[in-house]
Every structure is written in structure tokens, then in C-alpha cells.
Design a protein that fits this description.
- The complex is a heterodimer.
- Helix content of chain A is 62%, strand content 4%.
- By secondary structure, chain A is mainly α.
- Chain A has a two-stranded antiparallel ribbon.
- In chain A, strand 4 and strand 5 form a beta hairpin.
- The longest helix of chain A is centred in the C-terminal third of the chain and has 27 residues.
- Chain B is globular, with a radius of gyration of 21 Å.
- In chain B, strand 2 and strand 3 form a beta hairpin.
- Chain B has 14 helices and four strands.
- The chains are: A mainly alpha, B mainly alpha.
- Chains A and B meet through helix 7, helix 15 and helix 16 of A and helix 6, helix 12 and helix 14 of B.
């Protein structure tokens, strides 16, 4: 439904066109992302006139939009981490498993007993204080991210294989932590991570903002972002020019693991439990989809962090829309799978070559595609 | 750098380890299998029975079939992550057609096999003609097939058709009071056919050539494009057949069937000595990969204390170890 083939470009003006004009319209895929989001919102408005209505209850903002934003928080965070990985021409399909592990660690450390206090309701029980719990869950997630990073950057394993191993075994690890059961969390302060409000705005959005601020600062205010793109476009050339490709590749997988860990905390806090089997199931699809919808090519190179956030928002809006339409949410998998297919075809060199041959004068101005980037063996 | 097979400058022959490294991963697998099987026989009473050994095949016939197809894909230098969901889709389509629409199994089975082959063909075409990396295409294919399962039904569909239950219950007696199922025969036939295909046909030799060096294969005039597309088609067919076997085994269709099977299939192939970088590997090795998988599974069952999650963890770690081993060999070859 979404990715329409790129529109035919306007005929080149007789004078030398400003560089990047074509990319500005077609190449910078934010246009498609925004168009898709607008379509979804228009559809929602048509079916539900109160879609934009925001009311204030108990000093908190309430409404469909707020709900969508709140629910897309975990995906936004993972998508940002994954954007960095994909920009280095890598992939991480273990994020869903890490979400499960992080939630399992947190739930197991808080403990799963319900303690009643005198008939007034439940008491807040926790075996470890909350900062310790959060630090442990995030630490474990970071470790798993680093594990991926070591295998890929230092042992030279293919990213898909290394993260596939974690995708499979990670769920096993989560099951071991939870003993194969769903651990319910009975500790009210923990609920605040995913359900709480700060200044009337969902707390999870502050986490998203914090993560976004850190990553954007690190990649856009330092040369790190440029290095990451250089590795994605041509790892050999980037190493020869002195970019520490190994260290940076290692770091992006570690960051991706950490992001998945943060998301895992939000998810487990949201549903007040940890389920090793189903928490974060198929999150990897949503995350990859968010990244490609945001305009970052799966072949690496240029990346768009805020585009990925936008992509996550689109996916959550789509899911909410489908819920509202009364269709089983699992059916969206078909649509999502199809979108990944189409987008990856549209981003392929063949289609790019077709676009180029349609406008041969622009060929020299498009630095983003480098057919020499070796794939597969990394 | 020393060229392959050339005598060293110091006159000493290359060590046996380096000369026979084509078979070394397989030798490691067979050795490890014997050690683990021996350990099981030593630790657990009743482990060393023919029926337990045959159960390796009975419980993993679908894995053997899908791993056989995967062997070809990996030898050609590609990867296919969609196998688990194609199996699930096959069980789902079979179940709904037989139970809800009253189709005859004689019609349903060819139909689902064709469906799997077409699914593989479509992915192969996208990989070959749009030059998209195989893992992205097959990852999308994996999600798409799972989604199709849920379009059919979100719940599990039990199969009560007499043909399916008869085949499922049918046991072929063997000497010493043991028996195997139809599934085992199917798996062995597929493996034998794949063995012939890999080693005695042009198609098979072309796959090895492509995996070794696609550009060279192209320059030699080999039909690279056609062969690569056919490899994915063959794998789709194998997955669908594995799905049929899985339907016999489980007697139900469910969208959550064979979750994570792609890891098992890839692990089985790699443990069987096939290089992930392509160009080298054996169908016979995959057989040992399946045996290894069966041994681990059975050891964990016999132990009783370990939860079944350990199978996944062990197989993942084993895959990891073999991947690292392969890197090591590749490095030893270069120096």
C-alpha cells in the first residue's frame, strides 16, 4: 500500500541544477514516510472524528495520539539503535530476544510475589531497589549487544548469523531466567517507566527524547556519524583512511543491545509482567521496517535517526488503526512483510540504475550509492 | 603466501591437518557426535538402543528435509531465513484445506508442495534479478509467510482427516523390535536425491562453483542466474515437504509451528561441515548435523532436569563454535 514507485523526476532545468535536488525529493525518503503517516491519520480522522481530541484527566494528557506516542516508545528506541547498525551495512535481528531478556531480568529481580497489606491493597515489594534492577537489566542487555559486537567485528562473523544465534538462544536465556513462566511484577514504582506521566506527558516519551538526544549528539555533533556512514559505504576504504572500523562496529551493536534493553524495561513495565516467550516477539521486523521507512537503506551508508522515529510512529499508528478496524493484529505481518519486500526492491541497485538512466545528467551528483561496497562476508 | 598444494620452501609437506581441511569440519562433527553419543550411552541407561537412535530421525525428519534444501542454499553462498515460516504456512494451508474445505489429501499435498516451490522461486527471482541480499529478501519472506498463517487462522487447527492420522500412526517394522515412520523414509529419500543432485549432476557442480566464486562461474559460462533461482526454488520445495512431514508429525496446523526453525536448519547445515561463505559442504554432513541435533535433544530429555530451552541454547552455541572454527580454518588456509 505505501511505497509507490518513485515519481518521475521533473525534467532537468537548462541551467546547472543545485546538487541534491533530486535526492531532496525522491532520495530523502522522509517524504514517503510523512505521506504515509498523513494518509493513516486522515483515514483515522475519517473513521473517528475524535482522533485528535486530547483531554486532561488528573493532570495527564489523554487521547488517541498520546496513546499511540506512548505505545510506540519502545519501537522508537530500538529503531534508533538499529539505524546505527544498519548504517554500518549490518543487521541485528536479536533485538526482540534482548527485549525479552531485559524484561525477564528486571521482573526476576523485583520478584514475583503479591504481598497484601492489611486489606488496603497490595504492598510494593521488591527484592532489589529499583536503580539496581534497572542497572542490572540494562547491563545484561549491553552485554548481549557487546557479545554481538565482538562476534561481528572481531571474529568477522556475518551479522545475520551472529544475531540469528542470539535470536534463537536469547529466548532460551529469557525462559531460563523466568523459569518458563510469566512473572508478574507487583511493584508500583516500576509501572511508572511505561505507564507513568511527567508534567502530564507519558514518561516513556522522555526516555525516547533522552536516547534520541544522546545518539543525535554523538553522531551529528562529532565525526562519529560520518565514520559510521563511511563504514557502511566502504569498510575497506574507511579503514584505510584511518577510521577505526572495528571499534565503531563493535560499539554500534553494543548501543543497539542497550536500546533494546531500555525498550524491554518499557515493555515489561507496560504489561506489568515479563514473558520470555512472547515479549518482543517479531520486534525485529517492526524495527527493521521502521528503519527502512525512515529512509535508511538496508545497504548501509546514510542514516536518518529521526526518520526511524517517524517510521516507528507509522508502524504504531498502523497497528492502532488495524486494531480499531477490528482486524486481528497478526494480519499486519503480511502487510509489513510485503512493505519490506517492496522497499528493499526499490532500494536495490537495479532500480537505482533505472532511475539514473532516466536522468543520466544526474549520475555524477549522487554520492550515496557505491556499488563497490562489499557485502556478505562481514 | 603458499599456494594450495604447492610444496613449502623448507621442503616439508603441509601438515595433514591443512591438506585434508576440506573434510576437517566434517571430521570434527563426526568425532563430536561419537563423543556425545558415547557420553549419553555411558550416563543413561537405555540410551544405547536402536530405537533411541531411530528416534533421532523420527523426531527430526522435517529438520533433515529442510536442512537438505538449506545445504544447497548455503553452498551457493546464500542464506534462507524463511524455512520455518514456510513450514508453518504449509501446515496451516494443509489443515484448513483438508478440515475446513473438504479437499482430498491427494490434492492438498501436491498443492502445498507447489506453493512452497513458487514461494522459493519468487524469493530467488528477487534475489537474483534485483540483486537484493538474500537475508533481507528471505527475512521479509519469513514475516510474510507467518502473516499468511494468521490470515488463515490465529488459532491452531487440528487435523482429524483419516489419511493424515493413518500416515502419522503407520509404523514400518524393522528388525530387533524397532520401527520407523513414513517421515523417516521421506527424509532419507530426499537426502539421497540431494546427494545425487549435489555430486553427480551439472546442477550440483554449478552450485559449488557459484559458491566458490560467482564471478568465475559466470566467466566459465555456467548458468549462474538460473541455478541460483533454482536453488531457492528447491529449498522452498524442501521446506514445503518438511511442512507436509511436520503435518504428519503434529497432526495440526498452527502459525506458531516451527518457530525458530531457521536457526536449527542453519545450525544443522553448518555443524555438518558446510562453510557459511559457500563453495564447500556435503549433504552427508548435514545428516550428521541432524544426528547431532537429535543427540543433544535426547540427552536433554534423558537428563530430565534441564528444560527444553537448553536445546536451543546448546544448538546456538554449537553453531557459534563451528562458525568460529570455520573462521580459524579460513585463516589457516591463507597463511
Amino acid at each position: 500500500m505505501m511505497p509507490v514507485p518513485p515519481t518521475p523526476e521533473p525534467p532537468p532545468p537548462p541551467v546547472a541544477p543545485p546538487p541534491g535536488l533530486v535526492r531532496g525529493i525522491v532520495g530523502r525518503d522522509h517524504f514517503w514516510a510523512l505521506a504515509t503517516l498523513s494518509l493513516l491519520i486522515i483515514y483515522n480522522l475519517a473513521t473517528n472524528p475524535h482522533f485528535f481530541a486530547i483531554s486532561i484527566q488528573d493532570g495527564h494528557l489523554y487521547g488517541s495520539i498520546i496513546d499511540i506516542l506512548n505505545r510506540s516508545a519502545p519501537l522508537m528506541i530500538i529503531a534508533m539503535g538499529l539505524t546505527l547498525v544498519i548504517a554500518t551495512h549490518g543487521i541485528d535481528i536479536s533485538v526482540g530476544a534482548v527485549v525479552a531478556i531485559s524484561g525477564a531480568v528486571a521482573a526476576a529481580m523485583i520478584g514475583g510475589e503479591l504481598v497484601m497489606s492489611g486489606g488496603t491493597g497490595m504492598e510494593d515489594v521488591t527484592r532489589f531497589s529499583m536503580p539496581v534492577v534497572i542497572a542490572a537489566a540494562l547491563g545484561v542487555s549491553l552485554l548481549f549487544g557487546m557479545w554481538n559486537g565482538v562476534l561481528i567485528s572481531y571474529f568477522g562473523m556475518q551479522p545475520i548469523i551472529a544475531t540469528l544465534i542470539l535470536l534463537g538462544t536469547g529466548r532460551g536465556v529469557a525462559q531460563l531466567i523466568t523459569n518458563g513462566q510469566i512473572i508478574t511484577i507487583y511493584y508500583a514504582p516500576y509501572y511508572g517507566i511505561g505507564n507513568g506521566f511527567l508534567l502530564g506527558i507519558p514518561f516513556s516519551l522522555f526516555i525516547v527524547a533522552a536516547v534520541a538526544a544522546v545518539i543525535v549528539l554523538l553522531t551529528r555533533k562529532t565525526a562519529l556519524g560520518l565514520f559510521i556512514e563511511a563504514i557502511g559505504i566502504n569498510p575497506v576504504a574507511s579503514r584505510l583512511t584511518g577510521v577505526r572500523a572495528r571499534t565503531i562496529t563493535f560499539a554500534v551493536y553494543a548501543v543497539c543491545g542497550l536500546c533494546a534493553g531500555i525498550a524491554g524495561l518499557i515493555v515489561s513495565s507496560n504489561v506489568k509482567s515479563a514473558d520470555g516467550n512472547n515479549a518482543g516477539l517479531l520486534f525485529e521486523l517492526d524495527a527493521i521496517l521502521a528503519v527502512v521507512l525512515g529512509g535508511t537503506a538496508l545497504t548501509g551508508g546514510r542514516f536518518f535517526l529521526l526518520g526511524s522515529v517517524l517510521g516507528a510512529l507509522i508502524i504504531q499508528t498502523l497497528t492502532t488503526t488495524i486494531y480499531a478496524a477490528g482486524v486481528a493484529p497478526e494480519v499486519t505481518l503480511v502487510v509489513k512483510g510485503l512493505v519490506v519486500f517492496i522497499v528493499s526492491i526499490l532500494q536495490s541497485d537495479k532500480i537505482k540504475a533505472m532511475i539514473h538512466s532516466a536522468a543520466p545528467a544526474r549520475r555524477s551528483q549522487n554520492p550515496g550509492t557505491n556499488p563497490g561496497a562489499p557485502g556478505g562476508t562481514r | 603466501m603458499n599456494r594450495e598444494g604447492a610444496p613449502r620452501i623448507d621442503g616439508r609437506p603441509r601438515s595433514i591437518l591443512l591438506r585434508n581441511q576440506r573434510f576437517l569440519p566434517l571430521a570434527v562433527t563426526i568425532g563430536l557426535f561419537l563423543v556425545m553419543y558415547g557420553a549419553g550411552a555411558y550416563l543413561f541407561e537405555g540410551f544405547l538402543s536402536l530405537q533411541v537412535f531411530l528416534n533421532f530421525f523420527i523426531d527430526n525428519a522435517f529438520l533433515a528435509i529442510t536442512a537438505t534444501g538449506m545445504t544447497f542454499v548455503i553452498i551457493s553462498g546464500g542464506i534462507d531465513l524463511s524455512v520455518g515460516s514456510v513450514i508453518a504456512l504449509t501446515t496451516m494451508v494443509s489443515a484448513t484445506l483438508v478440515e475446513h474445505h473438504g479437499f482430498s489429501p491427494a490434492l492438498v499435498i501436491p498443492l502445498v508442495l507447489a506453493m512452497g516451490a513458487v514461494y522459493g522461486l519468487a524469493m530467488g527471482l528477487v534475489i537474483q534479478y534485483f540483486k537484493v541480499q538474500p537475508f533481507i529478501v528471505t527475512l521479509a519472506g519469513m514475516f510474510f509467510a507467518r502473516g499468511l498463517c494468521y490470515v488463515i487462522s490465529i488459532d491452531s487447527i487440528t487435523i482429524e482427516n483419516s489419511f493424515y492420522s493413518d500416515v502419522s500412526a503407520f509404523r514400518i517394522p524393522l528388525p530387533f523390535d524397532t520401527s520407523i515412520t513414513v517421515n523417516v523414509i521421506l527424509a532419507l529419500v530426499v537426502m539421497a536425491a540431494a546427494f545425487y543432485l549435489a555430486h553427480y549432476t551439472r546442477f550440483g557442480r554449478t552450485i559449488y562453483a557459484i559458491g566458490g566464486n560467482e564471478q568465475s562461474a559466470m566467466l566459465m559460462g555456467l548458468p549462474v542466474a538460473r541455478t541460483k533461482v533454482l536453488v531457492y526454488t528447491f529449498n522452498g520445495l524442501c521446506s514445503a515437504l518438511a511442512g507436509v512431514v511436520f503435518t504428519f508429525y503434529m497432526l495440526s496446523g498452527y502459525g506458531l509451528h516451527a518457530q525458530g526453525m531457521e536457526l536449527d536448519a542453519i545450525a544443522t547445515v553448518v555443524i555438518g561441515g558446510t562453510l557459511l561463505t559457500g563453495g564447500s559442504g556435503y549433504v552427508a554432513g548435514t545428516l550428521f548435523g541432524v544426528l547431532m541435533y537429535g543427540t543433544i535433544q535426547t540427552l536433554i530429555t534423558f537428563d530430565g532436569d534441564l528444560s527444553s530451552w537448553w536445546t536451543k541454547i546448546f544448538i546456538g552455541l554449537l553453531l557459534l563454535a563451528f562458525c568460529l572454527l570455520q573462521r580459524l580454518f579460513a585463516r589457516a588456509k591463507r597463511t
